[in-house]
Each structure stands twice: as C-alpha cells, then as structure tokens.
Design a protein that fits this description.
This protein is mainly α. The protein has one domain. The protein is 74% helix and 0% strand. It is built from five helices and no strands. Helix 1 packs antiparallel against helix 4. The longest helix is centred in the middle third of the chain and has 24 residues. The two termini are 18 Å apart.
Length: 74
C-alpha cells in the first residue's frame, strides 16, 4: 500500500483521502497543495502518516502486539 499511496500522491496529489481525511484532502486541492509548500512537506511526512494510520486500523481490528511488531507497526 505504501508504494501505491506514494504514486497516487506524486501523480495526483492524493494522500489524505486514502487515510480517512477527506476534508483535509479537499482543502489540499483547493490551496493547490499550499502552493507547493504543503505538498513538499507532505512528501517527507507521508511515510510516517501511513504507519500511524495502519497502526490505528490494527488496534481497532484487535490485532495482537506480537503481530503488530512483526508487521513493523510498533
């Protein structure tokens, strides 16, 4: 999923929407990625955001700590 999300971000500017933040995604488009500044910052913070989102989903689904460690979420 990480590679797909990076490709979507680089080609379409899409990152917040697939992480459950549609309002932020719309604002990102309306401001043209903060005139590029927000987009540049997002490029470097996207990896961490994906990891945090995946960890939240794993916790909600009841995944055990051992499994989360194996997946690199903790």
């Amino acid at each position: 999923m990480v590679i797909i999300l990076f490709l979507l971000f680089l080609l379409l500017g899409w990152s917040y929407g697939s992480l459950g933040r549609m309002g932020t995604q719309v604002f990102f488009y309306l401001t043209l990625g903060g005139l590029g500044i927000w987009a540049l910052i997002r490029l470097f913070t996207l990896s961490k955001a994906i990891k945090v989102y995946n960890k939240e989903i794993a916790l909600k689904s009841g995944m055990k700590l051992k499994d989360m460690v194996q997946l690199g979420l903790v």
